[in-house]
Structure formats: C-alpha cells, structure tokens
Write a structure and sequence with these properties.
The chain is an alpha+beta fold.
C-alpha cells in the first residue's frame, strides 16, 4: 500500500459528528499531497462555515494523518472556497444519506 492510500484509509475513520459519513467520502477533503519526504498537506472544508464542531473535525483530521506510520509532518488548511456541496460526496456517502436519487 502507498502512504497516500494509508492516509485516505485513516481519513475514512474521521466523522463529522453531525453526519454519519466520514470526511473523505463526504467530500470535505479538497486536496491531499504527500511529498517525497512524507510531509503531508491536507486542504479541507466543512459542510458549513459556521459549523460548531469545526475545531474538533480539523483536530481529528490532523491526528488521524499524524498517526499513519511513515508520515513525518502534517499541515491541515481549512478553507471555504470553493463552497462545499453534495456533488463532492462519494456514491457510498450519497447512498448512506439517502441522497442517491
């Protein structure tokens, strides 16, 4: 397995507390870059800018990626442009939430 695959698997263990879908399949991860030295950059958003659990979700993403063996450092940037919408969700997430119609 590649380090990026391991990171994605870790991100799939992080859930928005208000939605029963992980942050990766929810489409909250806009960018994931792993450089040759195993430093990781994650650009992510939330379903809404005023999410009361913003700090919690960002911290959970940070810790999940840091805990992946081989990761040297992690930088997580929280952005709100472009605005998140359900078109970013995976098919699995759409089915889970009953939005697959």
């Amino acid at each position: 397995m590649s380090l990026e695959s391991d990171i994605i698997r870790a991100l799939r263990q992080v859930y928005d507390p208000e939605i029963p879908v992980n942050v990766y399949d929810l489409g909250l991860i806009y960018e994931l870059n792993v450089d040759q030295d195993h430093n990781v950059y994650v650009q992510m958003t939330l379903t809404a800018p005023n999410c009361p659990m913003a700090d919690y979700v960002v911290d959970e993403v940070q810790h999940a990626v840091e805990d992946v063996p081989g990761v040297v450092s992690v930088k997580v940037d929280l952005v709100f442009e472009p605005v998140w919408d359900k078109s970013r969700m995976s098919e699995e997430a759409l089915v889970e939430l009953g939005l697959d119609e």
